[in-house]
């Protein structure tokens, strides 16, 4: 039996006892979260959220891509979220390669050079990456400056979140 068949069986059991059909569309906690797709991260458990509490957006690296940005804008403008969180994590696969190396390898393996994805968004510095993602959201003209946007690094060994402060705020605290 394939893994897909296994999860379809699990879904049948889930559906028999389904109790969330009456949840409203807007998230109850007015929160939107962007997290890495890494299977070791379970945002609802990490953040103590229940079904219906928050929008959770996931992709490789927890990167504010065009699609993630689209989701944040819709989440706020149409569904009323009032706070945003970015979660990256230790031991992330996005730290292990360079975009140009992966692209070259894929072109060599397949003999094809497609137009998408334009970038894989690999990065070398975890904290700096979180700061950049927070800044992408904070600087977008369709999102109010009043929305709190905070970034965190999840430690896959301890389960703890560490807040990443903006570069200016961090340097002021060290003074």
CATH superfamily: Carbonic anhydrase
Please describe the biggest sheet, giving its number of strands, its sense, and whether it closes into a barrel: 5 strands, mixed
Supply the CATH class. Answer: Alpha Beta
> What is the quaternary state of this protein?
single chain
CATH architecture, please? 3-Layer(aba) Sandwich
Commentary on this structure:
The protein has 175 residues and is α/β, with parallel strands linked by helices. The protein has one domain (3-174): Beta-carbonic Anhydrase, Chain A (3-Layer(aba) Sandwich), CATH 3.40.1050. It has 6 helices and 5 strands, in the order αβαβαβααββα. The chain has helices at 3-16, 43-47, 66-79, 99-110, 126-138, 167-174, and strands at residues 31-36, 54-59, 83-89, 149-154, 161-164. Strands 2-1-3-4-5 form a 5-stranded mixed β-sheet. The chain is globular, with a radius of gyration of 18 Å. The relative contact order is 0.15. The model has no long low-confidence stretch (mean pLDDT 95).
Secondary structure layout plus pairing:
Elements lengths: L2 H14 L14 E6 L6 H5 L6 E6 L6 H14 L3 E7 L9 H12 L15 H13 L10 E6 L6 E4 L2 H8 L1
Parallel strand pairs: 1-2, 1-3, 3-4
Antiparallel strand pairs: 4-5
Question: What brief labels describe this structure?
Answer:
single chain; 175 residues; alpha/beta; Beta-carbonic Anhydrase, Chain A; 5-stranded mixed beta sheet; 5 strands
């Amino acid at each position: 039996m394939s893994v897909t068949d296994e999860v379809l069986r699990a879904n049948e059991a889930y559906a028999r006892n389904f109790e969330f059909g009456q949840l409203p569309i807007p998230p109850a906690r007015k929160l939107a979260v962007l997290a890495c797709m890494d299977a070791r991260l379970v945002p609802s458990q990490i953040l103590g959220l229940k079904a219906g509490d928050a929008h959770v957006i996931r992709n490789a690296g927890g990167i504010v891509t065009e699609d993630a940005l689209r989701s944040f804008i819709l989440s706020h403008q149409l569904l009323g979220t009032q706070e945003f969180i970015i979660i990256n994590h230790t031991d992330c696969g996005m730290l292990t390669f360079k975009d140009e190396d992966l692209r070259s390898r894929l072109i060599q393996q397949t003999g094809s050079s497609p137009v998408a994805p334009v970038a894989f968004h690999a990065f070398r510095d975890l904290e700096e990456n979180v700061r950049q993602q927070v800044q992408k959201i904070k600087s977008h003209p369709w999102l109010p400056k009043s929305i709190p946007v905070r970034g965190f690094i999840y430690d896959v060994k301890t389960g703890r979140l560490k807040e990443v402060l903006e570069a200016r705020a961090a340097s002021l605290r060290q003074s």
